[in-house]
């Protein structure tokens, strides 16, 4: 009997497992619409110019490789918090925001979960966090691993391929006061469906009235509309209403820094003493998890955000990425019509950000994978960033063929 005989083969990750299958596929026209990573119109990974320029400057500066502080470099944290919150409710100017660097969005969510599990006074015994249905699949294991029970609230309406606003409001209203509610700040993953500003106002009023704790996952700031301020509207509005949200940022998508693993966790509090106490506890948790964050990504982000020219270039480049995705939405709808599809695909154009929740069934997805070598998650989510001038026609034909 071997020591590890009882360890069984686990299932592949629902998203990254697809990339593994795609990589093994030898079909020349295969298409990967699984993972949410931006590709240029040639289907190639894209390094932003502002990032390349920042890296040149960093190389020229001959910096050392000492450990970063546990919470990450101050110039990074200040710039990151400002990008997310700007002057909302004067929270930053009043020194009542704690910001720690995180191992991208995933790590920020995980540290937030650990903090909540230890310090939040949950109204329910099993320490629940309420997630929209559907949500990013990794939210569930992240919070479970922190001892927090993922539960759901209504979000997506299959009939309209849009927001089930009524269902969402009813569910949030039914929760025990003081519940923890996760909200996607913009470009909801996987649906691409966001509340309008007016709907956000109503959601904020309800969440405040119910004294729920809003936890914003902001993985796509800049990517939804191409405008960083517009995409931070909900987060800032909640602050303006006097709420104290958690805001988790990622630089994977908007700066294309996927593999650098850089992000931040911001906790808005009532005063600088509280901010300081929370920072001290987060540091204790981080020290035990990974000790200190990686330095390179944080340096890139700080260099870009703290330099006027590079910052302006970033805004332009994020806008261009968002625009390319929007134009592919239009093209895909046009190509579906050209291919002869009589179905209503208009939601592809209405949805926002990196993803399109196509409405394709699990069986149709399976056929796209096995017959057409087009890889996407079984819930029918298409990563629009993988669609290009070169494959949009092929994709449309295949989608029509499996749905006709
Ligand atoms: N939240 C959401 C909603 C996401 O879609 C993602 C990335 N797919 C993340 C968080 C985290 O990504 P990362 O860890 O690369 O920042």
From TrEMBL:
It catalyses: L-aspartate + 2-oxoglutarate = oxaloacetate + L-glutamate. Residues 29-398 form the Aminotransferase class I/classII large domain. GO terms for cellular component: mitochondrion. Its cofactor is pyridoxal 5'-phosphate. Its EC number is 2.6.1.1. Homodimer. This is Aspartate aminotransferase. It comes from Salpingoeca rosetta (strain ATCC 50818 / BSB-021).
């Amino acid at each position: 009997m071997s020591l590890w005989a009882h360890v069984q083969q686990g299932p592949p990750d629902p998203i990254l497992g697809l990339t593994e299958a795609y990589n093994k596929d030898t079909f020349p026209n295969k298409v990967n619409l699984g993972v949410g990573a931006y590709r240029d119109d040639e289907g190639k990974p894209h390094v932003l110019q502002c990032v390349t320029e920042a890296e040149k400057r960093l190389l020229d500066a001959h910096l050392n490789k000492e450990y970063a502080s546990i919470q990450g470099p101050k110039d990074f944290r200040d710039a990151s918090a400002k990008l997310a919150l700007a002057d909302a409710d004067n929270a930053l100017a009043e020194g009542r925001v704690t910001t720690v660097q995180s191992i991208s969005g995933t790590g920020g969510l995980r540290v937030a979960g650990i903090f909540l599990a230890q310090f939040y006074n949950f109204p329910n015994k099993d320490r629940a966090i309420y997630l929209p249905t559907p949500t990013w699949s990794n939210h569930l294991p992240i919070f479970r691993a922190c001892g927090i029970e993922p539960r759901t609230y209504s979000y997506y309406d299959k009939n309209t391929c849009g927001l089930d606003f009524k269902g969402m409001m009813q569910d949030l209203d039914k929760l025990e006061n003081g519940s923890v509610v996760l909200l996607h700040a913009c470009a909801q993953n996987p649906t691409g469906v966001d509340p309008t500003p007016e709907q956000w106002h109503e959601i904020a009023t309800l969440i405040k009235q119910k004294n729920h704790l809003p936890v914003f996952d902001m993985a796509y700031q800049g990517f939804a509309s191409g405008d960083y301020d517009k995409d931070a509207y909900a987060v800032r509005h909640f602050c303006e209403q006097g709420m104290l949200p958690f805001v988790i940022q990622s630089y994977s998508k908007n700066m294309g820094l996927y593999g650098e693993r850089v992000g931040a966790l911001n906790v808005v509090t009532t005063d600088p003493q509280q901010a300081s106490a929370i920072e001290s506890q987060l540091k204790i948790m981080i020290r035990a998890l990974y000790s200190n964050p990686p330095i390179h990504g944080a340096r890139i982000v700080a260099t870009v955000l703290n330099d006027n020219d590079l910052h302006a270039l970033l805004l332009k480049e994020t806008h261009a990425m968002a625009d390319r995705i929007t134009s592919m939405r239009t093209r895909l709808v046009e190509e579906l019509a050209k291919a002869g599809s009589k179905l209503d695909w208009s939601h592809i154009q209405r949805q926002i950000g990196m993803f399109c929740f196509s409405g394709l069934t699990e069986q149709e997805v399976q056929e796209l994978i096995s017959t057409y070598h087009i890889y996407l998650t079984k819930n029918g989510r298409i990563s629009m960033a993988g669609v290009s001038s070169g494959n949009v026609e092929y994709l449309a034909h295949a989608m029509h063929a499996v749905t006709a």
